[in-house]
Amino acid sequence: MKEFSFLPDKLLSMPSVQLVGQWYEQSFQDVLQFNERHSNISEDVLNKFNETLDLLQKRHSTVVETMAEGILEMKREHNEYADDGHHTASCIQYFLDRLYANRIGIEVLAKHHLMLFAKMGKDEHCIGAIDPECDVMSIAEDAYESARVLCDQYYSAAPECEFECHSFSNSLIDNRISLTYIPCHLYHMIFELMKNALRAVVEHHRHHTSGLPPLKVLICQGHKDITIKISDHGGGICRSQLVKIFNYLYSTAPRPDDAQTMAPMAGFGYGLPLSKLYARYFNGDLWLNSIDGFGTDAMICLKLLPTDASELLPVFNRTALSKYTQAERVADWSDQISGLENR
Q: Is the pTM of this model over 0.90?
């Protein structure tokens, strides 16, 4: 909440951003009423706490969309975009990464508590929100099917997908790989990457959609990591775009019309940066390797052992403060990233 005050004034003054700030203030007040410690807590108090957590989840369900609208409001009013390369853009990117990472953490805690103690959305295979035997192949297949249906609605065509599992020990049971994980997080990441890959293939081969090259998904279990590689022949991404794809509100697709009734295939620019945060939440990562003119390999790396999958949450300290207050660093010849946009 404190970090809201470090946002640029032109963004902080936007109605949507102020609304998000009010939601967090209200939620903080709602939780504070349960701050008193009692040795014996009545069932009524527990039920009220569960109801409050459920209310908080519903209140914050549109934080991402509302913050995105706030940035668009700033763009319209000040003719400034969050991907313009200035210090303002850097502050906004840093703030959104931290805001959404904290949001993921709060959502996990609330959902885990409600599934354990309020039996809300309880899954017999899970312990709270966590599945100790999360089937990676099953979730990847579900994510592909959902993305394929969406792609077919938009383009009346969708590539097939070939799945392969591999283990360093060659001891797979039923060709399946599992780990301790939160299923909805894994689904979110794979769905976003599948959606991007399907769109890229269809648009790159739009003049001959009858013979679309299939996506290829490799799920590999190593000694300490599980890696998921989603490969497509969708034309790839040039280097000037590749350095921007994890910036919020940057998308290679046109922004969807607000009046359309179907779920958008792409265009909001939040899919990849949010997926990366989900991957990093349990000490994993997500990145893209692309060959311009050919295709892209999207990689998700997850920790195999629960002991290695510690939560990575932002903390507010002097280093964090300096990210908002220090002047923008001037790039020179040694700055490899800054020069990519002109190559």
A: no
